[in-house]
Structures are given as structure tokens and as C-alpha cells.
Write a structure and sequence with these properties.
The complex is a heterodimer. Chain A has nine helices and no strands. By secondary structure, chain A is mostly helical. By secondary structure, chain B is an alpha/beta fold. In chain B, 36% of the residues lie in helices and 25% in strands. In chain B, a hairpin with a 2-residue loop joins strand 6 and strand 7. The longest helix of chain B has 18 residues. Chain B is globular, with a radius of gyration of 20 Å. The chains are: A mainly alpha, B alpha/beta. At the A-B interface, helix 5 of A face helix 3 and helix 4 of B.
């Protein structure tokens, strides 16, 4: 094809509706593909960072003060907002589900249904969402600022591996704090459901909790499966946040982008991991227990 | 593009030609050897065929305008970058081929003063200066405190008053001095200064320059200073090297640099707004 023919074709592509639609379609597919590849690259890089960080776990003793400080930030700092959200969710669920169960005369199952839902899914998911929004973004911002201010370079120039000094304590702190926060979310969610059920449907708190802990509804595998999920979520959120922070560039704008990307990527990958874990881990736990 | 000095016309090729490597003077020992160093980022060629010897115990100032490749060069000396071609050798160790362990060992011989000091904002002055002693040398805290106080006093800071302050509480000049204290606390052989006087007032600039000379005199270190501050360069340098568009166009003593007719160098020395450094800008 001659250059003139090329140019004529290019003009026809962009000036006719069919050409425009085709061009737009190609762009959508191209951008989608690029987006998927970009996220896959981020996931791979975060996995590598996690692997490198876990290689330093044997030196966790030296980093104990830093780990403790991070646990305090992750745990105590998130407690109030997580409790509030879990409690309110439990109340909303109780009202919604209780209204339907009442029609069928099955209000005695309300506690069990809420406890199973929280222990299997809502507890770990809400804990993950609160942590990634609050702690993940803060970690990405902190490490991103350190990166653009050359503090990470300063560590490397002093023969201090930033993965050992910055990343490992943060991921370990999340692994320690997340299961505890998940248990608290489970309890507060069930408590919220119990309180609203008592006020709305006349179910006593004690009978609500009796239903919630009835083995007909709630098995050990449900609780342990939820805690296993929370550990995986902690590893994911910590790895993504630290990876985004350490790969920040372009000054303050770059820090903002890293923070936003951390939250978006963490939400996507937490839900993907939840799907994977729900399918495989929960089923495996049922076989064990 | 052309430049002229003393009625001599320079073509672009002549201006961008790297200067030949001088033979090692008698009595000097080469500590670092850079040969044919090339580095690109995508389509941007940042360093092009750098040849340079750095002598033990000297203060070498690397001058250059913005975008000339100074920071990229210093990052190679830190072992943060791997060259596309060429070698960077410290003794027998080629930094391009070094393992992580070898690089770690090499960096223990280094002290680095970053442009904005790069102090960790969450740590106190004591923790910042003592960081390499705590994390790398694993010294007990009482020894760390003693060494930190000595390092702060060496940079003329009131050690006891500022030990428990965080960097945000310090002035720019004090932060820079704390950064220098951190660089010298492990008694390094080599100190790299990345734009040490940028952003400081003239009095503090002179203070930092005098401190650099004092450290040189008392510790006998090899200092490599990246700067575009001519006053600082001529105050502290034993030798000056000029980077232009990724090439070393001149290397020599202060007198040799002053006498060098290269148009880029002369424009840099005079601060003139007319010349090859500013061709294409303004009217």
C-alpha cells in the first residue's frame, strides 16, 4: 500500500461512522487488555515483594518495636470505625431478613443466619475493606512520600534493605491484627443484629445468641475459614500498599496516584481472592471438620 | 549549534566530544575507575561514554547543568543502577556485576549526603544519625548515643539539644548538617554529596562548604560532590569535572578548568545567558 493509500484509508477510518466505531472498539479492547496486563504486573510484583518480605521474618525480633507500633495503628486505630460499620450492618441485616423470616414463622433462625453470614463473609470482608481504605492507603502514602523524598534511597545507601526495614514489619502487623479485627467484626455484627432484633421482633438477646452459636447453623469451619481469609487479605493489602508506595514517582501527584491505586487494586484483588478462598478453602475446611 | 570563545568557532560535535582521560599523577592512587559508561532510559541517552578516574583522598566536584546526567552518574556510583555499557569499578569490584552482598559490603564504605538530607521523618535526630549503627553495625544503644553525639558535634550542632527532636522541627541548614552527621557516623572511606548546598541561604552554604573541607581534612575521605554551585565547587574542589549532555567535556584542577576554552564551560563559569547551554531559549 502506498503512503497516499494509507493516508486515504486513515481518513476514511476516522470520518465515517463505521470507521469511528471500529476505531473506538479497537481502542476499548486495547485499553482493556493493557489494563489487565498492568494489573497482572502489579499483582506479580506485589507477590514478589511479599515473598522477599517473608524471607526476613526470622529478623522480626529486631523489628518488634516497629511491628508493635504498626499493630497499634492498624488495630486500635481501626477498631471504632470497624465496630460501627459491623454493628450497623448486623442491624440492617436483622431488619431485612427478620421481616421475611417472620412471615414464615422462622424468626428463631435469624441469629444463626446472621452469624454464619458474618463469620464466613462479612466479618473478613468488612475488616479488609476498612483496613485497605484506612491503613493500606496510609501505608502507600507514607512509603510513597519516603520514596519521592529519597528516604528509601538513603536506607539503601546505608545497606539497610527497605523490604526488611519498612515492608516486613507492616505486613506482619497486618497479619497479626486482621484476624483479631475480623473476630471483633463478627461479634459486633452479631451483637448489632441481636439488639435490633430485640427491639423490633421481640427476640431476646440470649435466644438470639443461642441461635447464632447453634451448630445447626454455625460450624467451626465457618469461623476458622473466615480467619484464614483475613490472613490472606492482610498479606494482599500489605503487599499491594507497600509495592505501590515503593514504586511512587513524580512527587506529590505520584503519591496521590499510588494511594488511589492501592485502594482500587486492593478492593479488586480482595474480592478475587475471596472468590477463590470461598470456593476452595471453605470446602476444604468442611472436609477437615 | 555552535559556540565561540576567543574568536574560535566550535561545532556541535566538538562541543559534545568527551575529554581524554588524563594519566594518573604520581603519588595518586585510583580508588574508582569509570570506563565508557553509557546509560539510557528509553530513548533518552543520559550518560554517553564517561571515562573518569577518582583518586583516593581527593575532593572531586562534578559540575553540570540540569539534565546533564549528574544524578544518574551518582546513582551508578551508589550501585543503584546497572549501566547499559561500560564499567564502574571500586578497586576490583565491578558495581555492574556485584552481588547484593558485595553491594551491601561496598555501601558500608560509603556515606551519602542527599539533596534534601533525606532524613526519616518518623525518627528523632538520634535515631536518624544512629540508624546505620543500630541496623547495620548492631551496636548497643549507649555506644550509639556516644557516636551520634560525636558526629553531631563534628558538624557543629548542639547535640544534646536536638537529639530528641524530629526533622520537621529543624531548619533546612540543620537538617543538612544532620544528614552529613549521618553520612560520617560510620567513618566512611568515601562520601557522596548530591547537591549539598541547594536550597540553602548563602551563610549556610558557606557553612556546609567549610564543613565539607573540615571533614576532608580531619577524616581524609574521598569526596565526590555533585553540584551546579560554582562558588562551592571552586571553594572545595581538588579537581572539577564538567558534564554536558551526558559526556565529560572537561576534567582538571581549578586553574585548568578556568583556563579551558570550551564554550559550555566558559558559559557555566561566567553565568552568561548567551551560549550553547541556552541556545534555543528566549529571544
Amino acid at each position: 500500500m502506498t503512503p497516499e493509500q494509507h493516508k486515504a484509508l486513515e481518513v476514511s477510518r476516522t470520518t465515517t461512522f463505521a470507521g469511528f466505531a471500529k476505531d473506538a472498539g479497537v481502542r476499548v479492547v486495547s485499553n482493556t487488555g493493557r489494563g489487565i496486563l498492568d494489573r497482572a504486573q502489579v499483582a506479580g510484583r506485589a507477590c514478589l515483594l511479599f515473598y522477599q518480605a517473608m524471607g526476613y521474618v526470622s529478623q522480626a525480633g529486631r523489628a518488634f518495636p516497629m511491628i508493635l507500633k504498626q499493630v497499634e495503628f492498624v488495630g486500635f486505630g481501626s477498631l471504632v470505625v470497624l465496630s460501627l460499620i459491623s454493628g450497623l450492618t448486623g442491624m440492617i441485616m436483622a431488619v431485612q431478613m427478620g421481616a421475611t423470616l417472620e412471615d414464615y414463622g422462622a424468626l428463631n433462625t435469624l441469629g444463626g443466619l446472621i452469624s454464619v453470614t458474618f463469620c464466613r463473609e462479612l466479618g473478613p470482608i468488612w475488616a479488609a475493606v476498612i483496613i485497605l481504605a484506612r491503613v493500606g492507603s496510609a501505608m502507600a502514602a507514607e512509603l510513597g512520600t519516603m520514596t519521592v523524598n529519597e528516604e528509601v534511597d538513603a536506607l539503601r545507601s546505608m545497606s539497610i534493605d527497605p523490604v526488611r526495614y519498612l515492608v516486613m514489619p507492616r505486613i506482619l502487623a497486618l497479619i497479626i491484627a486482621m484476624p483479631i479485627l475480623t473476630l471483633i467484626a463478627d461479634f459486633v455484627g452479631i451483637l448489632g443484629g441481636a439488639l435490633i432484633s430485640s427491639a423490633t421482633f421481640g427476640i431476646t438477646v440470649s435466644s438470639f445468641f443461642e441461635s447464632a452459636t447453634d451448630s445447626q447453623f454455625l460450624a467451626y469451619s465457618d469461623v476458622i475459614g473466615g480467619l484464614i481469609k483475613s490472613v490472606f487479605f492482610a498479606c494482599l493489602i500489605g503487599s499491594i500498599a507497600c509495592d505501590q508506595g515503593l514504586h511512587t514517582s513524580d512527587g506529590a501527584e505520584g503519591v496521590g496516584k499510588s494511594t488511589t491505586r492501592t485502594v482500587v487494586l486492593s478492593v479488586i484483588f480482595v474480592l478475587l481472592m475471596d472468590l477463590f478462598l470461598t470456593t476452595f478453602v471453605q470446602l476444604a475446611m468442611k472436609r477437615v471438620f | 549549534m555552535t559556540g565561540t570563545t576567543d574568536n574560535q568557532s566550535w561545532t556541535r560535535q566538538e562541543m559534545e566530544r568527551g575529554c581524554p582521560l588524563d594519566p594518573v599523577p604520581e603519588g595518586k592512587q585510583v580508588l574508582m575507575r569509570i570506563r565508557d559508561l553509557n546509560k539510557s532510559f528509553g530513548s533518552r541517552h543520559i550518560l554517553r561514554g564517561i571515562d573518569l578516574d577518582i583518586y583516593k583522598g581527593e575532593t572531586l566536584v562534578i559540575l553540570g547543568g540540569s539534565g546533564s546526567g549528574k544524578t544518574t552518574l551518582i546513582r551508578h556510583l551508589l550501585g543503584f543502577l546497572v549501566a547499559d555499557a561500560g564499567t564502574v569499578k571500586v578497586g576490583e569490584l565491578d558495581l555492574n556485576l556485584a552481588t547484593a552482598e558485595q553491594l551491601e559490603h561496598y555501601r558500608r564504605r560509603l556515606g551519602v549526603v542527599f539533596q534534601m538530607a533525606a532524613l526519616l521523618n518518623s525518627l528523632t535526630v538520634l535515631e536518624n544519625v544512629g540508624l546505620p549503627l543500630i541496623e547495620v553495625d548492631r551496636l548497643p544503644l549507649d555506644q550509639v548515643r556516644t557516636r551520634v553525639i560525636a558526629a553531631l558535634k563534628a558538624v557543629f550542632l548542639p547535640a544534646e539539644e536536638i537529639l530528641h527532636l524530629k526533622p520537621a522541627s529543624l531548619s533546612g541548614g540543620m537538617r543538612k548538617r544532620v544528614g552529613i552527621a549521618r553520612a560520617i557516623v560510620q567513618k566512611p572511606e568515601i562520601i557522596l554529596y548530591d547537591e549539598p548546598t541547594t536550597g540553602l541561604d548563602p551563610v549556610t552554604v558557606n557553612g556546609v562548604n567549610e564543613l565539607t573541607l573540615e571533614i576532608q581534612r580531619t577524616m581524609g575521605v574521598t569526596s565526590i560532590v555533585i553540584t551546579h554551585d560554582l562558588g562551592a565547587a571552586f571553594m572545595i574542589a581538588d579537581r572539577i569535572a564538567m558534564l554536558y549532555k551526558g559526556r565529560l567535556i572537561a576534567v582538571g584542577t581549578k586553574d585548568q578548568i578556568r583556563a579551558n576554552p570550551h564554550p559550555v564551560l566558559q558559559q557555566m563559569l561566567t553565568g552568561s545567558t548567551k551560549g550553547p547551554l541556552t541556545e534555543g531559549y528566549g529571544k
